[in-house]
Amino acid sequence: MAKKPAATTRQDAPAGTLDADCRIALLAGPVQFIAAEHTAALKDKLIAKFGEVDVLTFDGASASPAEVYDECRSFGLMQQHKLIVVDNADQFVKDDKRSLAERYAQDPCENATLILRSARWNKGKLDEMIAASGA
């Protein structure tokens, strides 16, 4: 029996797979250490694919959506790819800001990977959108 070829596109990757083709990811759960480990593993995969990666971290409770999404869409001067981490993501996407997150999840930037990390998460339509282009 022949082996299954390696995933080459996001549609071919199994659901929930954090790989270098991921453009948006949700890490939800009460154990921050596990989220940090997944973030570090994804960063290593991005470095292997793109070389040096610029990492920016925002606090979702105080960061504005414009600040985060502008950073995702802007090009780095030295790096080919950016890793944008938003902690307290449940606060970042609540209320009227959720529609902005849904819009970004429908068409995430190719030169950035956005990680939403949160101890608590309310499931909804955004989860399906994230799964379509990420994990």
What does this molecule look like?
- With 135 residues, the protein is an alpha/beta fold.
- The protein contains five helices and four strands.
- It has helices at residues 32-50, 65-73, 89-92, 98-106, 125-133; strands spanning 24-28, 53-59, 81-87, 112-118.
- Strands 1-4-3-2 form a four-stranded parallel β-sheet, with helices on both faces.
- Helix 2 (65-73) links the parallel strand 2 and strand 3 (81-87).
- Helix 4 (98-106) packs parallel to helix 5 (125-133).
- The longest helix has 19 residues, at 32-50.
- The chain is globular.
Characterize the overall form: globular
Largest sheet: 4 strands, parallel
Tell me the span between the first and last alpha carbons: 29 Å
- Percentage of residues in helical conformation: 25-40%
Unreliable residue runs: 1-11
> Strands across the major sheet, in which order?
1-4-3-2
**Computed structural class:** alpha/beta
Name the average pLDDT: 83
Q: How many E strands?
A: 4
Listing every helix as H and every strand as E from the N terminus to the C terminus, the arrangement reads: EHEHEHHEH
**Count of DSSP helices?**
5
Rg estimate, integer Å: 15 Å
Strand content: 15-25%
